[in-house]
Amino acid sequence: MPDYWLTMLDEDNFRYTVERGIYGLPEGAGDEAKLIKPGDRLVVYIMKKGCRELCQSFTAVLEVAGEWQRSKKPTWPDEVREGRVKYPWVVNVKVLIMGKVEFAKIKEKLQGLLGIGDLDPSRLRLYALYYAKRPLPPGVGELVEAELRKSAAAEMRTHDKLVDILVEVGRWLGFRAVKEYRIDNFRVDVAFFKPPRTTPFAVAEVHVGGDVYKDLAALKHAYDRYGSKLVYVLAKDEEQVAKLLNEALQGAFHEIREHIAVVKAEELHELHETLKLAGVKGLLKQLEVAKPADF
């Protein structure tokens, strides 16, 4: 049976770890590295400091997929910023499950498994598990992994449902809608086509969880490549994601700020229900926005 180990990362380093499939430990953790063996699992918790979207949440379970090696050059975002190696012990990892489980939602279950009356990350109780340099007690890692799988399954159902709604709305408005459309090395959730144009007239991404910057990169590439209209649907943590989105559109993605429509999931649902109305269908047909067969 694999051992589960708690690891605490900031959000930038977590995303780097997932994207590159590599995890690192500081110089003083050499003895711990010897204990974490191939096949063991790392339970990832995102620290509050410097976080944006995943604050104080469990976000992944990673499997150790190799032997530990020594790194001699800055790799992680904070290492590059500081110009020094902070995590010389590195190992390849693969993602078993990703999602978002807020600490508060499973706090009572964790307290029961750990026999702790007040498990509060701000009071360093959670940090004590990290710095203990031993595997998590039985049942703790398994609980987090199970909760992440439930969270990921729910997000996928929500994501897929919203993508289906986008496709149906697009079809009702006279577009040919294609799911999971690839544009070079990027993929968008939906691409909308309208003859005689052969490239996407518009593209859409649905955000239920994951990396906002990755979504925006896909949308920006469609804009740069084809001049496509951009649609971004927010389905979870709307206020928090909207704040992060605004910062991104003011900064790294400022070129698409005036070319992106941000839509809440409930607004998309309302549009979908409105387009179902017989009178609206009739109007769209008369205006030749949609063909009879589209409905």
From TrEMBL:
Domain named EVE: which ranges?
4-111
Q: Where are the transmembrane segments?
A: none
Output the Gene3D superfamilies linked to this UniProt entry.
Answer: ph1033 like domains
State the InterPro entries in the record: EVE_domain (IPR002740), PUA-like_sf (IPR015947)
Under Pfam families, the record lists: EVE (PF01878)
The name this protein goes by in its record: Uncharacterized protein conserved in archaea
**Lineage, highest ranks first:** Archaea, Thermoproteota, Thermoprotei, Thermoproteales, Thermoproteaceae
